[in-house]
Specification:
Layout lengths: L6 E2 L3 E8 L9 E9 L12 E7 L5 H12 L4 E6 L2 H8 L2 E4 L2 H4 L5 E4 L15 E7 L2 H17 L21 H10 L4 H30 L21 H24 L4 H33 L7
Antiparallel strand pairs: 1-2, 2-3, 3-4, 4-8, 5-8, 6-7
C-alpha cells in the first residue's frame, strides 16, 4: 500500500482522523481533513494565527475541532472556530439585534434582544466538505499544528491518528435515535418560551417604530439640500428653521440666475437665434444701402459717360 502524501494541492497539509465505529456502522474508518494557512481575499490582522480547514465531517462542532487540535498540540491553544456560513446562519436563526433604548442611549448602554423562535433541532449538521477557520492563540501554534499533522500523516499508523469525537461525550447533543427523539420533543415548544419570543419581537418592533417616528419629527425641522422642508403626515411639532431655509432659497436663486446668464451667452434659447438672424439681415441691408449710395455718388462726380466717335 502506497503512503499517503503529507501535502497536496494548494499547499494543503493532510490530517488523517480516525472515525470510531458505531452500532449502526461497526467499522472503524479514516477521514482526511485538509489544513493550510488562512489567506482570505481581504486580509485581516488574525490571518497569521489562523488555519483554514476543509473536508470536515458533517457532525463537526466547535467541541470536535478543539478536541482534535488538543490531541495534536495540547489543550488551550484554540481561541475560536468559525464555520463556513456561520454568520449568515446565526443572523437568520437567532436574529439577535442590538437595540438602543432612549433612556439608556445617553448612558451608552446597549440592550440585546433575542427575537428568535425556539429551535427545532438541538444540534446542527453540516453539508459534506464544509470548511472552517480555526483561530489559534499565536503564530507558533499554527506551525505546531501543521507540523504535528504532517508527522501524524507520515507515520501511517492508525493508532496515532486523533480520534474524532474523543473527549466530547456529554458536551454535545447525541446523534442517532436520540437526536430524533429530541426533535419530536422540540417540535412542541413550551408556550411560555414562545410567548417570550413573541414579546421580544414586539419590543424590538416597537423600539424601531419609535426610532422611525423620532427621525420623522427631526426631518420636519431640517431643510434638505434644495432648501425645502420635508412634509410628513401629522401636525407640526415646531417651527422650521426659516433662516436656514431662506438662505438656501437665496443660494438656489443665485445659481439659477448664473445658469440662465451662461445659457444666454451661449445662445441656448430659440428667441436668441431669431434675434441674431434678424440682426444679421439688418446689417446686410444696411451695408447694401451704403454701397448703393456710394456708387450713385461716384456716378454723379464723374458725370454721364460719352463714348468717342
Amino acid at each position: 500500500m502506497s503512503k499517503i502524501p503529507t501535502i497536496i494541492g494548494d499547499n494543503y497539509t493532510i490530517l488523517p482522523v480516525a472515525i470510531p465505529s458505531t452500532p449502526a456502522y461497526p467499522i472503524t474508518s479514516t477521514h482526511h481533513i485538509y489544513l493550510r494557512q488562512h489567506t482570505p481575499k481581504i486580509p485581516t490582522e488574525n490571518d497569521s494565527r489562523s488555519l483554514f480547514a476543509t473536508n470536515l465531517p458533517i457532525d463537526s462542532t466547535d467541541v470536535h475541532i478543539r478536541s482534535i487540535f488538543a490531541a495534536l498540540i495540547g489543550v488551550g491553544r484554540v481561541e475560536g472556530v468559525r464555520f463556513d456560513g456561520e454568520k449568515e446562519e446565526i443572523t437568520e436563526q437567532q436574529q439577535i439585534e442590538t437595540v438602543s433604548q432612549s433612556k439608556k442611549r445617553k448612558r451608552g448602554n446597549n440592550v440585546q434582544i433575542d427575537t428568535s423562535l425556539p429551535q427545532g433541532w438541538d444540534r446542527q449538521l453540516r453539508f459534506k466538505g464544509r470548511t472552517a477557520v480555526v483561530l489559534l492563540v499565536d503564530e507558533k501554534s499554527v506551525e505546531s499544528v501543521l507540523k504535528a499533522a504532517r508527522k501524524t500523516c507520515k507515520s501511517g499508523k492508525e493508532s496515532k491518528y486523533p480520534v474524532w469525537g474523543s473527549g466530547t461525550e456529554g458536551k454535545v447533543p447525541a446523534l442517532g435515535s436520540a437526536r430524533y427523539a429530541k426533535r419530536q420533543e422540540l417540535r412542541f415548544p413550551d408556550k411560555l418560551a414562545v410567548q417570550r419570543s413573541v414579546d421580544a419581537f414586539m419590543t424590538n418592533f416597537n423600539s424601531k417604530e419609535e426610532e422611525r417616528e423620532r427621525e420623522r419629527k427631526r426631518l420636519r425641522n431640517v431643510p434638505d439640500d434644495d432648501g425645502f422642508v420635508t412634509v410628513v403626515r401629522g401636525g407640526r411639532t415646531g417651527p422650521a428653521r426659516s433662516e436656514a431655509a431662506e438662505e438656501k432659497r437665496r443660494e438656489m436663486a443665485e445659481k439659477e440666475e448664473k445658469r440662465r446668464k451662461e445659457l444666454e451667452d451661449a445662445g441656448f434659447y430659440r428667441w436668441q437665434g431669431r434675434e441674431k438672424r434678424k440682426k444679421e439681415v439688418g446689417e446686410l441691408v444696411k451695408r447694401f444701402e451704403e454701397d448703393r449710395k456710394r456708387v450713385e455718388g461716384m456716378r454723379e462726380k464723374r458725370g454721364r459717360f460719352r463714348p468717342e466717335r
